[in-house]
Automatic annotation (TrEMBL):
Keywords, alphabetical: Signal, Transport
Cleaved signal peptide residues: 1-25
InterPro entries from the UniProt entry: SBP_5 (IPR039424), SBP_5_dom (IPR000914)
Pfam families: SBP_bac_5
Positions in coiled-coil regions: none
Keyword Transport appears in the UniProt entry: yes
Full protein name: Solute-binding protein family 5 domain-containing protein
Family recorded in the similarity comment: Belongs to the bacterial solute-binding protein 5 family.
Domain Solute-binding protein family: 69-218
Highest taxon of the lineage: Bacteria
Repeat as UniProt keyword: no
Organism whose genome encodes this protein: Geothrix oryzae
Cell compartments where the protein resides: Cell envelope
Length: 464
């Protein structure tokens, strides 16, 4: 069967050619590494699902490629005397059936995210502890979070039509075909300029490379080792992202101390390419945090004693991510040099998420894309944070979090200090997005990637 795979891949890729008729030449051809499942603004939570939601939905606010907060469904907002945020919605926003987007639709979305036990953990954590309502035709949200932080996080919460978790008001209309996920432009306030976007399932990086070289994909990420040589039809676009490969430990800081040592020299440069570099600290430097080591390292390794960890370590990761698996194999070889057996256990994404949420793991790792603000690391720290998989807590957290009103506040240093004393997670690699883009297509890179910022794909245009 293994020998048949390249031939089958060629047959599959050749099926793309008839789809590109002259009338469809202005459709952006893209790929997805895995099936995102049905479009669902309430329960969908994978990175692929977020891409679908960004095309078919609108949040109250957006984040521009330069990190600024910009209007989206809400044309204006203000902080009321009681601390609640009040939003005025656009009058020209419509759902696919033509009905206007109302404050009641936004209210239903927010309350459903809090009510549904299977709702997106990321979105539910954003709204945790909040109260919502509608008054005088305006949506209001009262939250224990500072208004500045809440506004930035609400960019992750697209509004669905009341009673219909699969309907959004975004710049593209979604249609699922047997072998593709298709988006066509709508009449929309962002005024999309491309004629459509079509995604096909290509889980193998070499299949993506082949499709790019043949001109069957408009844009895509090739294998790291070949990223310096795009074909003449494409150009290389590099965009910094707040993205890391993160490992969590439920066995205390001992395994993380080992990973902190190994990450320095585990990964050959040919594997990293332009995409990645070994992480240096505990929180993303791209968010403004200084590189800081685990404090326990001084007491243990500095005294000449090895970190406390079993000789055999089991690390869960998402199956099917070829580039990540190769990096983890390099990490395993580095562990062997120190006499440790790092066993890599691949799981389907949904199963890994379930194991993480139940705390059913010793070590686990996954790719994380942070929002472009320092509060994003609170997902590690808050009691119900979507990345607090170990039950981490500290008696000073609530007090310090309440003082972190703005980026750069002194409370951030203290928060990082209490995390460094006993962290539950450690980044292994920092990533940036390196893609090939058809030279005829103009895109605007940003820290959230090509799709998740505003206007995102709605702002792309072809050079006519």
């Amino acid at each position: 069967m293994r020998n048949l795979l390249p031939a089958l891949t060629l047959v599959f890729l050749s099926a793309l050619i008839p789809a590109l008729t002259p009338a469809q030449a202005q459709v952006v051809e893209e790929s997805l590494p895995r099936d995102p499942g049905p479009l669902d603004f309430i329960r969908g939570d994978s990175y692929e699902q977020w891409i679908l939601q960004s095309l078919a939905g609108d949040a109250l606010v957006g984040i521009a490629p330069d990190g600024r907060l910009v209007p989206r469904l809400a044309t204006a907002w203000k902080v009321q005397k009681d601390g609640a945020l009040s939003f005025t919605l656009r009058a020209d926003a419509r759902f696919p059936d033509g009905s206007p987007v109302s404050p009641e639709d936004a209210l239903w979305t927010l309350r459903e995210l809090l009510r549904d036990p299977q709702a997106s953990p990321t979105k539910r954590a954003i709204l945790q502890g909040s109260e919502t309502g509608v008054q005088d035709g305006r949506l209001w949200i009262r939250s224990p979070k500072p208004p500045g932080r809440l506004l930035l996080e609400l960019a992750q919460v697209p509004v669905a039509q009341k009673g219909h978790a699969d309907r959004g008001s975004g710049p593209f209309l979604f249609r699922k075909e047997p072998a593709a996920w298709v988006f066509t432009p709508r009449e929309h306030f962002l005024k999309p300029r491309v004629d459509g976007i079509r995604f096909r399932l290509l889980p193998d990086a070499h299949s993506v490379l082949q499709a790019l070289q043949k001109g069957w994909l408009t844009l895509g990420a090739p294998p790291a080792r070949l990223q310096a040589d795009p074909p003449p039809t494409h150009r290389l676009v590099t965009q910094p992202m707040h993205a890391q490969l993160v490992a969590w430990s439920r066995a205390g800081s001992g395994p993380l101390l080992l990973l902190e040592r190994w990450r320095r020299d585990a990964f050959p440069p040919r594997l990293l390419g332009r995409n990645a570099r070994p992480s240096r600290g505990l929180w993303p430097e791209t968010l403004g945090f200084e590189a800081r080591a685990i404090e326990a390292q001084t007491a243990e390794a500095g005294a000449g004693r090895p970190p406390r960890a079993p000789a055999t370590l089991k690390l869960l990761f998402v199956a099917g991510e070829e580039s990540v698996e190769k990096l983890l194999l390099a990490l395993r070889e580095r562990a062997r040099r120190d006499g440790y057996d790092l066993q890599l256990i691949p799981l389907e994404q949904a199963l890994l998420v379930a194991r993480l949420q139940k705390g059913d793991f010793d070590l686990a790792c996954s790719m994380v894309v942070f929002e472009p603000h320092p509060w994003a690391v609170f997902e590690y720290l808050e009691p119900r944070g979507p990345m607090n998989f170990t039950g981490w807590s500290h008696p000073r957290f609530a007090e310090l979090a309440a003082r972190a009103h703005q980026p750069g506040d002194a409370a951030w240093r203290d928060l990082q200090m209490i995390w460094a004393q006993n962290p539950a997670a450690l980044p292994l690699l920092d990533f940036q997005s390196v893609i090939w883009v058809d030279r005829r297509l103009t895109v605007e890179p940003g820290a959230l990637g090509l799709y998740l910022s505003t206007p995102g794909a709605a702002g792309w245009r072809w050079v006519r």
